[in-house]
Amino acid sequence: MKAVLHREKSGVDGLVYSAAEDKHPGFGEVKVKLIAAGLNHRDLFVINDRNAGDRPLIPGSDGAGIVTEIGEGVSPGLLNLEVALNPTLNWKKTDSLPEDLQIIGSPSDGTFADFIIVPAENAVAKPSHLTWEEAAVLGLSALTAYRALFTRGGLKAGQHVVIPGIGGGVATIALQMAKAAGARVSVSSRSEHKLELARRLGADFCFESGGSWKALFEETKADLVLDSIGPATFPNYFDILKPDGRIVSFGASSGDSVELPLRALFFPQLSVIGTSMGSSEEFHAMLRFVAEHNLKPVVHKVFPMRDAVEAFAYMKEGRQFGNLALMSGDKKVWN
Fold first, then answer.
1. How far apart are CA 327 and CA 307, in angstroms?
2. Buried b (16+ CB within 10 A) or exposed e, 235-252
3. pLDDT digits (tens, 9 = 90+) for 232-266
4. Is the per-residue pLDDT at 334 higher than 50?
5. Of the candidates 56, 55, 51, 108, which has an alpha carbon nearest to the alpha carbon of residue 85?
6. What is the rounded CA–CA span in Å between residue 106 and residue 325?
7. In 3D, which of 260, 262, 208, 253 has the Cα closest to residue 232?
């Protein structure tokens, strides 16, 4: 089979599209012919963190395809099933978070390939209303957004959620999910173009990230902030949250360290909550939610798998609104 392999050098310089070993599924596993894969910032972090002496790795955590082979102990009903991949490998129950959370694409081989071997439970029936590329980008972003909004954030209909830094895959699907759940959604960006695209997705209020947030939210304070930015915007959250409000953090694009104004935290009884990924239970719940509300993740651009280096460069520039996808083989369906 063909795959995007990372070897010899750190970062994108170590990526090469070449032949790779074709394997067969073991007990409890299935082999999936990948039609499309999703590209995430996690993939960049993974290859940047590798050393020259590490074994060759196929990166990629998200994907969708068709089950072509099943291992011993797997239901024959999975054969030929169209599936979306749950990227979380060892987290079944929502209330039983493993100490060593494992994700497809490191240390195990990932989705930037013609085929992948995964546990049968991680190959879940693809929602029929989604295209291959839409199903392929759903995993990491939609699972993270679902858990952040509902499991950790406790979002309910009629509440107000603020999503700073609209444009990434998690933020855009979180906007769609929150609107489907009946919430009011406010988003920020430094790009007027991205704000306009967010309006088209249903955002109720769009604002530029600079300036005083307190004045903007004097009359419409928020119940929940979904934070992926960190220190660049974190101080603003204490000015815009209602008493008993929540900050749910799932990223740190501007850095790891923030200062907490403790009186502004404990007097209004605010909560700062961390989250990452989600369980198998939440993945199934997310797919049901997506199907029930006919949601489609935004796929900004699709690249052929052989152009993975170009796709990584495009992602680093931060121009996309939504997700980036890779198409396997020679299918001429990318834009």
1. 10
2. ebbbebbbeebbbbbbbb
3. 999 999 999 999 999 999 999 999 999 999 999 99
4. no
5. 108
6. 19
7. 253
